[in-house]
Design a protein that fits this description.
Blueprint: H1 26-50, H2 57-64, H3 68-74, H4 78-91, H5 103-106, H6 114-142, H7 147-173, H8 183-193, H9 196-205, H10 210-225
Helix pairs in contact: 1-2, 1-4, 2-3, 4-6, 6-7, 6-9, 6-10, 7-8, 8-10
């Protein structure tokens, strides 16, 4: 998972006049949002099809139907464009709120039923990976040759592990983890199996349906993490 990246809209005016009150036009904001959406759609498709290194900014501008100046005004570098595209794909919108701070993830630790907690985590993470997994893998594959992508991949991995550790700590405090398993090792297991790599293999390469993937993953995680008395019957 990756944190969202907030970017400026592509048609921002020049520096404000100190003597004038800034005015935000709803029509202009809506137009800027539509432009960013076109750019994101084009960029996301090209990054996945061609890879990060092979994708050129001029190609993105052409595919999005915008001028290169408009593209560069919004995203001065390819790294900024990729970060914005991945960030919005990850969280589903442009709000500058990280995955870990969104209610659908931050409230997981307050679930009273451990099996329900696991089911909710898998459902929400699988939905995230269906949206953003291909782009996450682009950053992973480009990390060896590009320091910006390395930094993005490392930051995303660290943020993901932190989300898992917070959840497994809550499960451990409730006595729900299987005997001998501590919160850190449980988070490592989640980090390995609920990963974009496994998602890519099963959903993209092997053609598993979303339902097959989620069902298998939920059962596997429950069996690996939860004490027998807290597992659903099918994973005991």
């Amino acid at each position: 998972m990756a944190d969202p990246v907030k970017t400026d809209p592509p048609d921002l005016p020049g520096p404000p006049d100190p003597g004038r009150r800034p005015y935000a036009s709803p029509k202009r904001a809506a137009s800027a949002a539509r432009t960013r959406a076109r750019i994101r759609e084009a960029a996301g498709r090209l990054f996945v099809e061609q890879g990060y290194a092979a994708t050129r900014m001029r190609e993105v501008a052409r595919a999005a139907g915008v001028g290169e100046r408009t593209l560069y005004d919004a995203f001065p570098t390819k790294a900024a464009l990729f970060g914005h595209t991945l960030g919005v794909a990850t969280v589903g919108d442009e709000e500058p709120v990280a995955v870990a701070d969104r209610p659908e993830f931050s409230e997981l630790g307050s679930e009273t039923d451990p099996a329900g907690t696991v089911d909710a985590l898998i459902a929400r993470t699988a939905e995230l990976l269906d949206r953003a997994g291909d782009l996450i893998m682009v950053s992973v594959e480009a990390a060896g040759a590009d320091p910006d992508m390395r930094a993005a991949a490392d930051a995303g991995a660290a943020a993901t592990h932190a989300v898992y550790l917070r959840l497994t700590t809550a499960l451990h405090e409730r006595g729900a983890l299987r005997p001998g398993l501590d919160a850190a090792r449980a988070a490592d297991i989640l980090f390995a199996v609920v990963s974009p790599h496994v998602h890519q293999l099963l959903r993209r390469h092997r053609g598993w349906s979303a339902e097959e993937y989620r069902g298998w993953l939920s059962e596997l995680v429950a069996a690996q993490l939860l004490a027998p008395e807290h597992r659903p019957d099918s994973s005991r």
